[in-house]
Amino acid sequence: MLYADIMEKETTWKHIIALESVWLRHGFPLSYYVDSHSIFRFIEKRDSIWRKHHLKTDETDPQWKKIMRECRVQVTYALSPQAKGKIERPYRWLQDRIVRTCARENIRKIEGIREVLFYEVKRYNEHQVHSVTGDIPAIRFEQAVRGGKSLFRPFKVPSPYESTKDIFSIREERTTDVYRKVSFDGIELKVPGVDPYEKVELRMIPDEETGLTEIRFWHKGKLVGTQKVKSNDLKRVHL
Length: 239
Prior knowledge:
By secondary structure, this protein is α+β, with helices and mostly antiparallel strands. Helices cover 31% and strands 20% of the residues. The protein folds into two domains: 135 residues, 2-Layer Sandwich (Nucleotidyltransferase, domain 5); 75 residues, no CATH class.
């Protein structure tokens, strides 16, 4: 298990943090195998309340999928619970152990539950012999990497971007007005060095510790400015 955490609420940003944690450590994977949750996939009718009604399934990308496309990581969707069987089994096992431990030790707060999770993941990865492979998962993974059998490729920030912030971010596109400003969630933002009526891409990076979101303005392949605003004023970063 390359990443595990427990959250009070599942959001797009939490999934982006998970991508960053794994990719910076191990590199780009070949593919992700996920379900059809709205964080991973736009589906006609189910999600069209947020989009133009003529859009068909997969004709627009959620934020998570945009990162996948930009970094050339494939996405495969499991279309049924049965299709996810190999994924679900270890998670059911993990969930069962966490629930039993928390009930036995009367752990009720998320901080304590997280400690139990991390302990079980470490035990699963580094100590437990896998029932199918007959190997300890961490050792098997390290052997695959050393033997050139891993499907991870080295992480590199795709051109023309300059920072991992530009990759692990929430993206929106806006057009500047006559005053060279763009409006986002009711907030007007000045974009330096860009003419009126030009398209600008906003790449947003929330910081939970400071409560601020850094907005990086990109125009025609160049970073033209940055600005920080209160995260609570931006609805999109909480979805």
